[in-house]
Amino acid sequence: MIYLNVAGLAPFNQIVQQEVTTTLEQFGRLLYSDEGIRFYRETVQRCRNSLAQWLHVSNAERIAIVPNTTTACWLVLSLIRWNPGDKILTTTHENSTVLKEILSLQTQGVDVHTLDPISPDELEFQISALLESTHVRAIVISHVSHIDGRILPIERLYRLAQKHQTLLIVDGAQAIGHIPIHFREWQPDAYFFPGHKWCAGPMGTGALILGKQFAEYRTIALPGDEQERRPPWVDFELGTQNIGLIAGLTKAFLIKEQDGLNTPNQEGIRKKVQQELSKIENFNILEWDGPHSPGIFSWTCINKQTEKQLQSKARNISWKTFPLPQNPKQTGIRLSWSSATSKADLESFFHFLQGIR
Fold this sequence. Notes:
Strand content: 15-25%
Mean pLDDT: 93
Low-confidence stretches: none
CATH architecture of the largest domain: 3-Layer(aba) Sandwich
CATH superfamily of the largest domain: Type I PLP-dependent aspartate aminotransferase-like (Major domain)
CATH topology of the largest domain: Aspartate Aminotransferase, domain 2
Strand order of the largest sheet: 2-8-7-6-5-3-4
Radius of gyration: 21 Å
Number of helices: 12
Oligomer: single chain
């Protein structure tokens, strides 16, 4: 099988898997003894600290460890006290699970306004105009599109949101571990991502980085000093989690920090994919007038006949298909790779494309 769906699930890293196994074996000997509880807490805190160091988050206590992106999104949106008539801005490039959480707020009278990003400047102009003309409670948006890898101008939107006192909530599922990011000079109100995609960590892991407003949120009132000592992540970590998976996530963060993102290699692959697909007349490349991430490339077939022929010939290729936001009857195809994608897989894929022409 030619695997080109890293944006869905990264290939398992054996070092990470070994860390999961070793940690579970160690914890299994301790369980919930005093020493076991200490081991559990230290392991989770080590994960927070590793992520804070890698992404330059100033306060590791603002990082909550979560099982996935959907849970993080639900947690954040459910803690906002929505009023009928409140407005949310989002885009046509949001993941279906996040979009489901956004649209569910319509039952509370929330107005969801969806934008189709054509270029970074146009998206910024549209959002700026809406923020100037009406009160927007929150912008819920992806950092990198899961559809075609376009990089949305999140830092520019952050400045707009700050100016208009609008919450900025960011889905970083296709960004963290994929493109260079640090939070040294900016940090949205909430930023969440899973561990199993570009970080190459275990399934069932993820993180939620809290901005000032959510960091100061409290589900219950506590007396004086106890309230001050209560770390921000407490209200966002739901019950006991799998300590082995969290240790594996920490290992994945450390590997990413040490090895780097290897962006030039991924960009080289993307350029080659684009060159090969551009030679095929029956394909339309999906792109916008702006930057694209180095590990994602998407296209569509011009007609259904070509699409059927392509799918029938691609039985040994793992890629992502999806309905286009603007035209759900049309199918898009997404390729995604990492620096770990083998040359043999890429050469086999290019050979496959040569047979399509």
